[in-house]
Structure formats: C-alpha cells, structure tokens
Amino acid sequence: MSVASVRRAARESVSGLPREFWWLWTSTLVNRLGAFVSIFLAMFLTADQGRSASYAGLVGSLLGLGSVVSSIGGGVMTDRLGRRPTMLVAQASTAVSVAVLGFMTDPVAIAVVAFVVGMASNASRPAVQAMIADIVAPADRVRAFALNYWAINLGFAISSVAAGLVARYSYLLGFLGEAAMTLACAVLVFVKVPESRPDGAAAGGTKGARSARSDEPAVSMGTVLRDGRYMAVVGLSFLLALIFMQSQVALPVAMTEGGFSTTDYGLAIAVNGVLIVALQIPVTRFIEHRSPRRLLVVASLLGGYGFGLTAFADSLAVYALTVCVWTLAEIISSPTQMGLVVRLSPVQGRGRYQGMATLAWAVAALVAPVAGGTVIDRFGAGALWAGCAVVGTLAAGGYWALMRGLTPAGGSPGGAAEPAAPAVEQPATAG
C-alpha cells in the first residue's frame, strides 16, 4: 500500500463528521490521558497505604458498584438535564472526588470516596454516547463510535505508561494529575461542546411535556424495561461483556497457574491495546455499512472461541494469538453495539437507553471476576474457556434471531426513516 493510499484512507476515515463531534472526541482523549485510579488503585492501597489484598478488592468492587448505580442515573440526567450539563456535573464531580481520594487514609473514608469516584466517572458515558447519536448522521454513527472508542484506548495506552512513571515517585501526584486532566476535560466541554438534546427530550417521565417528535410518546425507565427487544439486546451485550471481562482476572490467574510470569501476561494483554489502536479505524471502514446482525454474530463467535482457544495455549505466542482473535471481536462489536443501541432507541429517550446499555457492561465488570475465579477454583481453567465458547455461541444465536430485518444504517428499513441529526444549540461561552 502506497503512502498516498494510506493518506487517502485516513482522510476518508475522519471526513464528513461535524466539528462538534471532534471537540467531543478531544474531550474523551483528554479524559483518558489522565487515567490513574483505574490502573493503580490496588497498588496504591497495598503498597502505599499498607492495606490487605482483600481490602483492595473490596474497594475495587465499590468502585465498580458506583459505576453500576450511575449508569441509570447518568442516563436519566442525560434526558432530563441535557447532554452537556450531565457531562459537566460528572466530570467536575470526578475531578473533586479523585483529588480527595488521594488524601484519604482512613479505610472507611477511602471506601466511601472510591464509591463516589465510581459513580462520578461513569455518569458521563450515556451523555457522550447520546450526544454522538444526536450530532452524527445515521450512516456515519458506527464510524463515529469507533473513533471515540479508539480515542479511549489510545488515551488509556498512553496514560498507562505515564501512570507507571508517576507512581514510582508519588501516588498522590497521580491522583492530582487525573483530577487536573478531568477538570480540563470539563472546561473543554463547557467552552467548546454545545448542547445537542433534541427539543422536548426532557419529556420522558414528565406529565404533559412535549415530545421530541409528535408521534413518539414520552419515555421513562419503565418504557426501557418494557421494550422487550431492546432488553434482549442488552442481555446479549451482557453475555458478550462477560466474555471480554475474563481478560482482567481469569486470564492472568490462568497464566500464573500455567507457570507464566506477570511480565508474560503484560506482554500478552498489550497485544489487545496495540491492535485496537492499529486496527480500529481500518476495520471500521470495512464494516460500517454492513449488516449489524451479521457483524454481532461474527463478533460473538470470535469472542467466545477466541477465549475458548486459551484452553490450548501452552506458550506466550499462543496466548498472544488468542488475544488477537478476541480483540478483533472487540473491535467489531464495540461500535456496532453502540450504533445498534441508538437505532433501537427513541430520540427523546436516548440517555435512558444508553444508560441501560452502560449498565450491562458495569454489571458484567462486577460479575465476571467472581464468576471466572469461582469456575477456575472449582472446575479448572479449561472449563472456563469452554464456557466462554458456549456463551459466545448463545450470544451469536440470540443476535441472529433478534436482529432479523435490520439493515446497515442509511439503508432500508433500518436507518433511512430516521430524521437527520438536529442542529445543535451554541452556548454563549463557545469560542
């Protein structure tokens, strides 16, 4: 491939998206560049604070529990208050709570503040995803979600290295650094990111309020829960998330039991980040106008059997190969699922629907470590990897059955009937 063709491909990957999206994308990148707590919280508690491993696990669980709680709360705020106010409140709260956490020494205070950090840091996700859906045309949404996901992983990859260097000198400096970066993200949103909520979107759950579209009823959380097809999709997303989450606890445990070192695990899992950064954009260009039904079936099978192949791994190279397989599933599934959520959501209920989708992953993050560890202890790692293959197959069958008739965005009958992205309201502070 020539340099000219690479440049052309890159230009086509980023062209046609509104300016507001790129400011939102930049805020996402800035936010992830400052990640520290999620990387070194356990080491901070054990090495710096002298706490036990079980206490570190408890605090980590509270951090995750906070994310579960805020998934729904953030979705409701997104619809009621608006996308921009929700992001500002969430990011400002995150900055303050992260800074406070760095100064905590009492075990109860640490646990409480960690729970608050989990709530604050996750509350903005439904707002970001709803805003992307608001401002990007249906045919470009998969690409937009993929670019945002790419920014998350690029920022996290850079911040992981930077956080390691900072932690060698001062954990407190890391906490304050994350607080500063998150605050900078909030300032960027305040100055450059306009509100995008469609007129009447706050109608959800309020009596007599005007709907965003005259033919659409008001949306409440009850509406979301009664949407059978959508909740089935959320359930399938939960199954897929359970598979991917095995990389965080079950995989390193299995590798350790197999005689591999922590360095070996680090090298194997690094393949995940490298591939996402390298392949997310070109793969998305290939899949963005293809059937979401087929893509999610393929992703489910690749994810399930990618982890299933781990049962046969006997060398670092084979472990790295299995990571390549399920990483491809992650690259395909992430933007496709986010685009699917938008297409199944009423315009005035995007925040609540996105919040429920976020909840599926937050709950999976809590359940997967316990489930994976329990299966390994009782039945062995081989049973867990076989179970991943079974779960992936079930998810693939579910997507195949549920998504009949759903075509690529912009086609028929899928995205063609959806109204164009509305004009966004320019705040007085925008520059």
UniProtKB/TrEMBL annotation:
Record InterPro entries: MFS, MFS_dom, MFS_trans_sf, MFS_Transporters
GO CC term (a single one): plasma membrane
Domain of life: Bacteria
Broad class of the protein's primary localization: membrane
Subcellular location: Cell membrane
The keyword Membrane is assigned to this record: yes
Transmembrane segments: 21-47, 53-74, 145-165, 230-253, 265-283, 295-313, 356-376, 382-402
Membrane-related topology note: Multi-pass membrane protein
Keywords of the record: Cell membrane, Membrane, Transmembrane, Transmembrane helix, Transport
GO MF terms held by the record: transmembrane transporter activity
Naturally occurring in which organism (per UniProt): Streptomyces albireticuli
Gene3D superfamilies referenced in this protein's UniProt entry, alphabetically: MFS general substrate transporter like domains (1.20.1250.20)
Keyword Cell membrane: yes
Matching SUPFAM superfamilies: MFS general substrate transporter
Residue span, Major facilitator superfamily (MFS) profile domain: 20-404
Protein name: Transporter
